[in-house]
Amino acid sequence: QVQLVESGGGLVQAGGSLRLSCAADGRTFSTYAMGWFRQTPGKEREFVGRIIWNGGEEYYADSLKGRFTISRDNAKNMAYLQMNRLEPEDTAVYYCAADKVPTTRRSRPENYDYWGQGTQVTVSS
Q1: pLDDT band at 1; cut points 50, 70, 90
Q2: Residues 63, 49: Cα–Cα separation, whole Å
């Protein structure tokens, strides 16, 4: 069981950067893969990226590869999403999620067992 809390969202100008954090309180954090998703009104929840249990592999939506970077610190029960060169189209509520399947690339929201409450990211033009 994992409780997740995102933080770090806010308003940023296009071209800027933000780092989102996801804090977990489970003792088995390192056994989960961690994913980041985003959602805007009227759209399906969109896969952003994933990092496997030990941080050894990262997976990204093709459109975001090169701008967004996922990392994790298992000693601190933390996952992060570094977002660079932000665009207005990146505006969304961003969610972190935990998947009990610890490896492989999994991009479907239904693959994930635990979700945070989300944090709003707004990118101005």
Answers
A1: confident
A2: 11
Nearest Cα to Cα of residue 80 among 39, 124, 119, 26? 119
Q: Smallest Cα–Cα separation from 63: which of 85, 33, 41, 93?
A: 85
Amino acid identity of residue 36, one-letter, is W
Region of residue 21 (left: phi > 0; alpha: psi -120 to 50; beta: else):
beta
Rounded Cα–Cα distance for residues 45 and 39 (Å): 5
Give the CA radius of gyration of the chain.
13
Q: Quick one: how far is CA 73 from the chain centroid? A: 14
Q: What integer pLDDT is reported at residue 117 of this predicted model?
A: 97
CB of 93 closer than 8 Å to CB of 119: yes
Which amino acid type is present at position 49?
G
pLDDT band at 113 (very low <50, low <70, confident <90, very high): very high
Dist CA 26 CA 4 (whole Å): 9
